[in-house]
Amino acid sequence: MVTNYSWLRLVFIFFSGIVLLFVLAPLVRLILAPGFSGLIEAASDQQVSQSIFRTLGIAMSTTVIAGFITVPFAWLMARSHFKFKSVINAIIDLPVMIPHSAAGIALLGIINRESVLGQWASSIGISFIDQPAGIAIAMAFVSLPFLYNASRDAFEAQTGLYEKAALNLGASQWQTFYLVSLPMAGKGILSGYVMMFGRAMSEFGAIVIIAYHPMVTPVMIFDRFNAFGLKSAQGIAALFVLISLIVFISLRLLAKRQTDARN
Amino acid sequence: MLEIKGLYKKLGNFELKAIDISIQKGNYCVLLGPSGSGKTLLLELICGFQKVDQGEIWLAGKNLTKLPVQQRRTSIVFQKPVLFPHLSVRNNIAFSLRINKIGKQKIIDKVKALALQFQLTHLLDRKPGQLSGGEAQRVMLARALASEPSLLLLDEPLSSLDVMLRHDLRKLLKALNDEGTTILHVTHDYEEALRMAKTIGIMQSGSLIQWGSPQEVFQNPASAFAAELAGLKNVFDAELLPENEKGLRKVLLNDVILLTHCDLKAGAGTVVIDEKQIFLSKISPQTSVQNTLKGFVKQTHKNPFDYEIEIACGIDLIVNISESSFNTLNLAPGSEVYASFKVSAIRFFRT
């Protein structure tokens, strides 16, 4: 297929190799370093396995709950035209741009026990600091833009004609949304969910400020590294990366199967 | 059936002005106008995609003006097929039936009947992405009719199709109309209007400037614009006779008989003779041309590039000839002249 091995092409291939190597080398080294026994050892540490389940569980719930309200918001933004639309889009992107520790500090400012929200939450028995609810809030804050952007792009890619057609055929606004707009944007939204979930489960900076305990795995890796050094942290890190890989490949395959079944 | 009274809508800089339309049940009405004349906006107002500023829209005795889109019982077919890509052809057609929670068996029967009518039976399990343009527009029509609308709105539904498919779809639309479906069709193609319409409306920058039968509109255009839009000069009421002669059909215009190619059933219609294909001579022409009419020049008119001659020969024919031909033939009002034209210069339209 490629017949034109011009020097420029060779240079580009060389660059591509560097980029790939740059991403892969530390990860491969990380997974190989502790060896199989190291992985088993990390997995049999009850604190580690609990932390992995906790991380996956909270990330999953966060993604589902936050996604439930983010997707309609993305639809609304895709279909609306107003003056400050780009400002709102930029605001949603902010959590991705700022240091995550700063995001944590910002969140702490409004959910601490003295704040209005914190007091109201504690009056109905919810506490955020050092609690799964706080972890979820931190995860949602930094990961939401991924789902929002992917969903909005997917909705914007459809012309409004499909919705008009559905309304014209007698569908209500809600039926039009879930029978036409949502399935048509399905591929984009699913990939947004995968990105959001990935970002949520790997979050460290914002979580460490709001909830050092109970430890999610990224915090535990940091904690072990501080307390016991590189060797001790490597096992958990390798295990978590492996599990992440398995989760993502499965989710991607699942998303692909879902969209393939439709086309 | 459809009554539009004093409809007004302002959209940005564009205004749709004081539209009054009345369409009887079973009519096939074509709104003819260039792009930007407000045709599509009018359709959007009728089916409720846009809010009316002033005026009223009534359909089958019901005031639609403020009704939500879903309750208007109008179905629209867009210029390009807008089929839901995630649903099979079957489920696209059944969309409105499912929404209305019609029984399962009824849905199956109805989809089957529509598929048969629109020759879609072999395509029912396909996804829209696997259809050709013509197939997709047929599915659009089947889907639009599944909800049994009181009025079918067509927004240039043929313009994205090639000639052969257009012909097929026109036949389908005609058949639908013959079965009683009331149709409001917008287009910028006068030939389409002439082929399809029982009533024609001409739209120009937001106003409806003419409304009437194809004969009225094409023979007596309300304005130069309408005439230009129609692009026609020789339009006549005619009757297609059942007889054949040398494989050709006879058409009767007043008491003149002409020959043409036509495979329609005998009956009334409209004949258009292309003025560019009419040849004039002073003596009876010895050619293979099938139609020759003897008459006299009624009047002549000089255009910038040619002469327009009106000839009385049982019908009043308009012929354009070059200046040199005009001088050679030495034509003046009262001159005897022969007008001849090929069978292919005549087109018969059923109206």
Protein described:
The complex is a heterodimer of chains A (263) and B (351). Chain A is mainly alpha-helical and 263 residues long. Chain A has two domains: 1-32; 36-262, MetI-like fold (Orthogonal Bundle). In chain A, 82% of the residues lie in helices and 0% in strands. Chain A is globular, with a radius of gyration of 22 Å. By secondary structure, chain B is an alpha+beta fold. Chain B folds into two domains: 2-231, 3-Layer(aba) Sandwich (Rossmann fold); 235-350, Beta Barrel (OB fold (Dihydrolipoamide Acetyltransferase, E2P)), CATH 2.40.50.100. Helices cover 26% and strands 36% of the residues of chain B. Chain B contains ten helices and 20 strands. Chain B has helices at residues 39-47, 89-93, 95-99, 104-117, 133-146, 163-178, 190-196, 214-219, 224-230, 323-329; strands at residues 2-11, 14-23, 28-32, 54-59, 62-63, 74-77, 151-155, 183-187, 199-204, 207-212, 234-245, 248-253, 256-260, 267-273, 279-281, 291-302, 307-312, 316-321, 336-341, 346-350. Chain B has a six-stranded mixed beta sheet with strand order 6-7-8-3-9-10, sandwiched between helices. A five-stranded antiparallel beta sheet of chain B has the order 13-12-11-14-20. In chain B, helix 4 (104-117) packs across helix 5. The longest helix of chain B has 16 residues, at 163-178.
